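Researcher: We're teaching a course module on how sequence relates to structure. For the next exercise, students receive a sequence and then see the predicted structure as tokens, so they can try to spot secondary structure elements on their own. Here is the exercise chain.
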Amino acid sequence: MTGCPFHASPASGPAEGERVVQEEKAQLDFDGRMSYGDYLHLDAILNAQQPLSPDHNEMLFIVQHQTSELWMKLMLHELHAAMACLRNDTLPDAFKMLARVSKIMEQLVHAWDVLATMTPPEYSAIRPYLAQSSGFQSWQYRCIEFSMGNKNAAMLQPHAHRPDLLAIVQAAYEAPSLYDECLRLLARRGLPVPDSHTQRDWRQPYAMSQAVEQAWLTVYRDPQAHWDLYQLGEELTDLEDAFRLWRFRHLTTVERVIGFKRGTGGTGGISYLRKMLDTVLFPEIWSLRTQL
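Model: And here is the predicted structure for the students to work with:
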């Protein structure tokens, strides 16, 4: 093997590696100091996976959903900040945050690729241990749906047993959505958004409006005159595009793993997810394209 570039002689083994670490003055002593694990609370995070079944594949199922919840925590953090920026007319900061939310959605879309490696027999082995627990009950996901404008009072009920979480979800339900804040911004800029869409009961599902479409068309027909509002419209387009992909991958993964069985949360499973594909969050952003 003489001359093979991948064959290391004993003399250039561990001693060489130690020399490099010493030359780089890497911090090695953490007695009394905060380490990487301390900062990230890795002991708590990495011990939070407690499979209930004896099946090997349950670890995948747990890690998939726990990491998704962490991404959703960041998504809510960014969404809330972006909405505050819209209220304060600081659009450049809002654009950065909304772009980040779209990238987070991409991470969640690709996460289904990993879960899809679970076969139907593998899921069947752990399903009895899940009882009625389901992602349908995720309070963070519900806050995201409400913040994106998909309001549904029935979705408060799964959290009634936890008053602390119910208060958080209810606050998102009663607050203006991201799209509501965008329309209020357009109105402040002098665009003809009707009062019915800037001063309404925020708990109600959004109703599409021809007047709102016309306001957006004013922006899209003269991007140079309304550049930041035009960019806002495209940020919303990116975000809903990513959200639609997430819903579609959710549907296909569930169908691949459980077929047409009912979901553990009590819904029809595939039938429920197919209906959710028809939800449009920012309707005029899509309909205006036909008029351009």
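Model: If you want an answer key for the exercise: The longest helix spans residues 227-258. The chain is about 60% helix and 0% strand.
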